[in-house]
Amino acid sequence: MGERVMENRKGSIWHSPLPKRPNWFERRSTMMLPGMEGKYIARGQFEGKCIAVLSSGGDAQGMNAAIRAVVRMGIYCGCRVFFIKEGYQGLVEGDEYIVEASWADVSGIIQQGGTVIGSARCAEFRERDGRLRAAANLVRNGITNLVVIGGDGSLTGANQFRVEWPSLLEELVNTSRIKAEQAANCSHLNIVGLVGSIDNDFCGTDMTIGADSALHRIIEATDAINTTASSHQRCFILEVMGRHCGYLALVASMACEADWVFIPELPPADDWREKLCRKLRMNRDAGQRTNTIMVAEGAIDRQCNPITCDEIRKLIVSELGLDTRITVLGHVQRGGLPSAFDRNLGTRMGAEAVLALMDADRDKDLPACVVSLDGNQAVRVPLMRCVEKTRQVAEALKEKNFDRAIELRGGSFMSNLWTYLKLSKIERPRRSVMNNLRLGMINVGAPACGVNAVMRSFARLAMTKGYTVVGIHEGFLGLTNDDLSEIGWGDVRGWVNMGGSALGTRRDKPSELGMQLVANKIKQHNLHGLLVIGGFEAYECVIELAEARDQYCELCIPIIMIPATISNNVPGTDFSLGADTALNEIVQILDKIKQSAMGTKRRVFVVETMGGFCGYLATMSGLAGGADAAYIYEEPFTIDDLRQDVVHLRAKIADNVQRGLILRTEYANKNYTSQFIHQLYAEEGKGIFDCRCNVLGHMQQGNCPSPFDRNLGTKLGSKALDWMDEQININISSEHTVQAITASSCALLGIIRQYATFTEVLKLKAVTDFKHRLPREEWWLNLRPLLRIMAKHDSLYESESIMAGVEKD
């Protein structure tokens, strides 16, 4: 995710200098224009229109989710939808390669990797004769709307096809290959692109379909390699895909605590060999048993010469004598199941693509667009302007203009790069006046994956600035029991890939333990700043500390909270740490449950998720898992609603659908419990289906954090330390005492859209439902109609897209 504000500090001493600040921060990622937000689409509104969908180029996990969404949203809108099999090759060949899709054709594909309609490279489509054949095939089927899922090459070809369309039709009529009446009925071709690429190399979107799943494969492999590497004290060099984009290597290096990363956008300094060996030797001397070096397949030096894994291995063996192995991950990164994020991304993008096509059908002057992601918001960006910027990256690399290449990659890439460079310091912390200042870290509430990544980055960056970092064990109860310990540099090694809380966590609040006692302990242990990580309980604790400052001067220190809860129910942020890991855990379980249902046939599963009163997990996992319904507290439901859903499922399963999936958040309704819903479905489904109930429980908290939670935790820890350092410098006296009394010195750090945002905790009280532990506004509620549409319910769909201009220099 991009961040609006980042510091301008010197880069790591082992990398070349960063670009000058003005080049990086004067750009605007997108220019938002009035668009589609709040528009409702009724069933059958576009009756008679024809849409086709094809996938081209390299496959990516999540493409099937997009295909499913295009088909089902198209049918919901009244359109006929066609598959074009085998990409542009199928478009050129026609006949059996172009087939009409039904609702059932995309049932059960959302959890599959790859693309069920196939993908192939087509040399014929690059020639005009091939495009003539393709145009004739579309006209014969009455297709004038095309969704293309692929990379920049595929989308460029689609736009050229669109531009040439009038001349292609004219030539087809003149050669009697189509009738003039057919040409008149298909006079305009509308194109919408969806970027499917594991490389995440397309300008104009924060994430491409497949990139998150590829990161999952890389991190799974890296975690597995680390165990054997540690056993034998080996050094491993991992080559990851990405062509000329270093995104996968960069993010994976942060998520696995790699010692070094080579990416094309920021080649190392000319003396990188000496510095690499120096760093590896220093880490081994500090007790590290293994080293990991991440190499993007397009890695180059500053003269644009390739840097290969074999070259690095020979260097390490000859200079350090380390047992060094190379692992080239290859196409395993394209394979496997799509992550929850990619399933939801593909679903949202596919649905929005249909609406974008219908808008273009009404307004012929609209340019071809790409449906992409800006933070958590769907946007439409002019296709060719995005393609042009993407190609400018390759040109900048060829011209050795690496500053420009980094700038063109966008805010998300720069944010990741900046955080990595800050954490890649060679030098260990030295004693300074700041060593007299002590910063506390504490966890409150239920465990959540990503917490340890926050503490690692916060602690190490604090140490490089000269602070002493103190870990408070077992929450505020541990503080009152003097259960604290100083954190050393090596103590946080390996924390990024650890789930749960390395310090331990409890739910006790200061008010329950005694505010006077808590204040006394803060003074006793000489804490000058406090990082609080946790869920709604942590949020309440920080509010209590802020409100008690008037009575207890010991609490007048900078306090920063980072939300970490699988429930994603803390105000002031769109995403809480741990929620992504939980979603992936739930979706994997749902896949297994659906597999069981396919084996037994005609079975409905009722699944209860955690989250308290918050329906985030039930809604987002339902969307990613292909659920028929998800019952949540925020959207009240009655017995009539339940009965209608039972009737709906009876009809579906009687029509040869093999299974049903119903989700319910744990506190959705006091009386309509999971057991009640199970019994209702079991009784009403007699003779049609049987029903089973599953309460997932604490397994949802996950084991190892997802790449997203590792990466987000690392970045938030870095931002929290920057804020803490600034607050201390503002509020420190000449006697080195800290007295922070302003409301802004007690804040919550969250992600709003794609920006890291600091909000005074006391201001958040007005937007909080404390009784039900919920924010009063939740962005994801707009996605709930989409869930029901994908399950063939009658619904009104709220288009989430807005129009956006491409990045401006």
Give structural notes.
The protein has 809 residues and is α/β, with parallel strands linked by helices. The chain folds into four domains: 50-208 and 338-393, Rossmann fold, CATH 3.40.50.450; 211-334, 3-Layer(aba) Sandwich (Rossmann fold), CATH 3.40.50.460; 433-577 and 705-777, 3-Layer(aba) Sandwich (Rossmann fold); 586-701, Phosphofructokinase domain (Rossmann fold), CATH 3.40.50.460. 40% of the residues lie in helices and 17% in strands. The protein contains 26 helices and 28 strands. A nine-stranded mixed sheet has the order 1-28-13-12-7-6-3-4-5, sandwiched between helices. Strands 16-15-14-17-18-23-24 form a seven-stranded mixed sheet, sandwiched between helices. A four-stranded parallel sheet has the order 9-10-8-11, sandwiched between helices. α4 crosses α5 and α8 crosses α14 (411-423). Mean pLDDT is 90; it is low at 1-38.
